[in-house]
Amino acid sequence: MSSTVPPTEFQYWDLMLASVPQACKYKSERKYTKLPAVEFFVNNTRGIRLSDASKNNFTGLADPDGQVMEEHGEKVSYLFEWPGYKTVKKQMNARRRKGGAVQTRSRVAQQVATIVERFIDEESDCVPSIPGWRVGPGYVEFDKVYLVALKRISKGTWVAELAVRLY
Asked: What is the pTM of this model?
């Protein structure tokens, strides 16, 4: 491996991930408490493969039962951009039941996996305006997508920082 890594890539051991660029910088008009990003590490490597999360495979995930998003009500919105496609935003339950405990790190990863998998399934026949980021069989497939972190951009909205395995 080269010792020089372009700024849009992460490099850990034998795993090389390219960040999925987010075209917009999100700013909230309302005041909200800034929280640190919810990060995902598996066996000390940044990012959880979403296909594993969708199958409830959290082996090696750091703090899988740790509670996240403590300051939310009943719903949370996840948002991400994929180059050449429309912005994806989906609202989901932040709690398992009304007034119940907040979500865990593993459950949040599973929710994002569901959204990304649905996006790839629905958009696999579409040719995006940026062909190198096309999703679906033979292009960027679900099993190559990783969730690196979630960053809060407003009281109820989190942006998913995604990455793609390059090989």
From this structure: 0.84
